[in-house]
Every structure is written in C-alpha cells, then in structure tokens.
Amino acid sequence: MQDPGRYEFYKSAAARDAGLYVPKLTSIMTWKPEETILDYGCGAGSTGARFILPKVESQNSKMYSVDVSLKMVNHAVQNYPSPSVTYAVGDILSDKFPFSNIRFDKVFSIYVLHFIKNYR
C-alpha cells in the first residue's frame, strides 16, 4: 500500500486492533527515561502518533518511525510532526536501513508481516 489517503481510509481492522491492543501493550511494558524506540512499518504515522508517541514523550525518549514507502513517510511527517520522532524511508531487511547504527530499547511493528514478501 503506497497511498496514505487510501491506507488511512481503508484500514478499519488495523485501526480497530491498534486501538484495542497497542494501548494495552504499552501500558504493561516497563518504560524508562530516554529510551530509543523503533516503529518499523509506521505507514502513514497515525498508529505510532496516537498510541506510542505519548509514552515516548512522557519518558523524554526518542522514536524512529520507518516505512518502505516515501509517500507514507511524507504523509507522517506532514501530519504527525514531533520533536520526539525522526521519520525515514527504509527497509530493515536491506543493507541500507537508515538507523542500523542505533540500538533500540523497544521495537514496534504493527500490521507489517502481511506486507513481507519473503518470510525467510
């Protein structure tokens, strides 16, 4: 999915599930100040902004949101800007992952596996 508008409009199951489970998940996790968080497969940015970013900001942490689609990342940058988030285009399965030099304390990847072409 490369169209942010269509993605946001048609993601009813993903939005429902994210609204149910991501707040539960983030509430039972142990959060420490100044952690480094990866939101891989951030899509158009709404899930990370609504459900992960509040925890990130409350802990003075930093979130890196990455997607393979430039259109999705541009949409996220325009609609969900925050000094606590750095957005980038990248594929974690490639040698050109933009944050390969960063050690992440937590990694979120919500509704991403069904887009992976080769599970190996």
Give the count of helical stretches: 4
Range of strand content: 15-25%
Q: Largest sheet, described in full?
A: 4 strands, parallel
CATH class of one domain reads Alpha Beta
Shape: globular
User: Which structural class fits the helix and strand makeup?
Assistant: alpha/beta
Mean pLDDT: 88
Strands side by side in the biggest sheet? 3-2-1-4
What is the percent of helical residues?
25-40%
| Distance from first to last alpha carbon | 21 Å
- The CATH superfamily of one domain appears as Vaccinia Virus protein VP39
Indicate the radius of gyration in whole angstroms.
14 Å
- Low-confidence blocks of residues: none
Q: What is the CATH fold-level name of one domain?
A: Rossmann fold
- Provide the CATH architecture of one domain: 3-Layer(aba) Sandwich
Number of strands: 4
Listing every helix as H and every strand as E from the N terminus to the C terminus, the arrangement reads: HHEHEHEE
Describe the structure.
- The chain has four helices and four strands; from the N terminus they run H-H-E-H-E-H-E-E.
- By secondary structure, it is an alpha/beta fold.
- It has a domain of 82 residues: Vaccinia Virus protein VP39 (Rossmann fold).
- A four-stranded parallel β-sheet has the order 3-2-1-4, with helices on one face.
- Strand 1, helix 3 and strand 2 form a beta-alpha-beta unit.
